[in-house]
């Protein structure tokens, strides 16, 4: 999985937590779907910056997915505020689905 | 820009309040349509220009098919054009005008009163379509993304406007004759502008995006979609011009164009299916894909009755079956499939978007009963086939049984739609 970060340990925890956030249509979590591009943590431990995308721009479920990402990370990192940046540059494509995700979809 | 507010992430879509009324209205219209069908079976052994046939056709074409497409497209257009819907108010206005106009129009046809009920019904429907077209054009104007699917929807909406305008002109022509011929002579034109220009073009445009999206397919081919666009619009324009100005011209060119467009669209859907990433295909997608294959059925009937358009030797029975396979076959099947691929997501979003991440929520597909859906699909298919057979051999027992099966399918459809709409939040 190709997620940029400035803190590998915390990023691994964050991505593991985000495995609980599912894309309601596809049924696959946002981590394996490859929607998360970057997770950065500020040095003071107060903020988490998440850069992510959606499978399609103006996706009707977009608000729910970004909301769930924010809420899930705030549940894990109690002291930190989660700030989300939604980007479509580069746009999401099927190559971003992880091997686990591909296996799930092939079932 | 980073933001911490859930609902300010730049992904706001059309409010459910502007979409759900269309779905509910369509569900009730379908039930009403099947009930009227059941009570009007003797009309199916007479001429297609029968008041009850006109009433059934319009409640199904407008109340069922058009209303659900208008509702769904208010939600889907932002996805296709990658921009927001221009106005929710225009969407509400479109609903209110159509909701008031359709029953008046249907009543006008049923009792064959081409006075105020049909005229006001037609005017209100036309205004509703105008609101929709303005909303579409303004939304697309403000959007940066221009794509072929958006062009399909825009062109289809213009054909719908022309169909409604022409339909209203035909209603007026009954009481104040101003057209060169009587209204009956123009029915094939009015019907095909609506069926091909509005329904077929829109279903293909939206389907070309949604089918690969729901199958999670990598397949895309805009060249093929351009070819389909040119074939359908070119064929329909040819039909329009020759029908009005060159009567007696063979319809082989528009029918061939249509056949080619269907073949190319079939190939497109098949390619999307073959390149899908998700191997498991759910029931709703199966019904939607079946409806793509069902597009061929009306075409077979069209070829068989096209001679009449030239020779004026009317094969009334075949024309009636042709209309039935369009509205109760292809259009109904695609609505059945797509309702439960869109409505549960709209409601899920309404119920859970502020509760996201707070616990385990049901999946959108859990909001309706899949068992009821399967029974509905089987009941519908049995009723549909039985009705065609019954109409062909003019057997009232078969027609009655078929109509009852279709009513049952409509009841089951309404049950699932209401179950979805009334869903209350469940968080574990």
Number of domains of chain A: 1
Counting copies of identical and different chains, the oligomeric state is heterodimer
Give the structural class of chain A. alpha/beta
**Beta-strand proportion of chain B:** under 5%
SS content category of chain B: mainly alpha
What's the CATH architecture name of chain A?
2-Layer Sandwich
Biggest sheet architecture of chain B: none
> What general outline of chain A do the C-alpha atoms trace?
globular
Number of helices of chain B: 13
Protein chain pair with the most extensive contact, residues per chain: A-B, 39 and 38 residues
- Reading the helices and strands of chain A in chain order gives EHHEEHEH
Q: How much is the average pLDDT of chain A?
A: 88
Which class of chain A in CATH terms? Alpha Beta
Overall number of strands of chain B: 0
Strand content range of chain A:
15-25%
The largest sheet of chain A is: 4 strands, mixed
Helix amount of chain A, in percent? Answer: 25-40%
Entry keywords:
heterodimer, A: 107 residues, alpha/beta, 4-stranded mixed beta sheet, B: 428 residues, mainly alpha, globular
Q: In words, what does this structure look like?
A:
The complex is a heterodimer of chains A (107) and B (428). With 107 residues, chain A is α/β, with parallel strands linked by helices. Chain A has a single domain (4-101), classed as Fe-S cluster assembly (FSCA) (GMP Synthetase, Chain A, domain 3, 2-Layer Sandwich). In chain A, 35% of the residues lie in helices and 19% in strands. Chain B has 13 helices and no strands. In chain B, helix 2 (51-81) packs parallel to helix 4 (116-142), helix 2 crosses helix 11 and helix 12 (370-393) packs antiparallel against helix 13 (396-421). Classes of the chains: A alpha/beta (107), B mainly alpha (428). The A-B interface holds A 21-22, 24-27, 49, 54, 56-72, 74-75, 81-86, 94, 97, 102, 105-107 and B 1-4, 6-7, 9-13, 75, 78-79, 82-84, 145, 213-214, 216, 218, 277-280, 345-346, 348-349, 352-354, 356-358, 363-364.
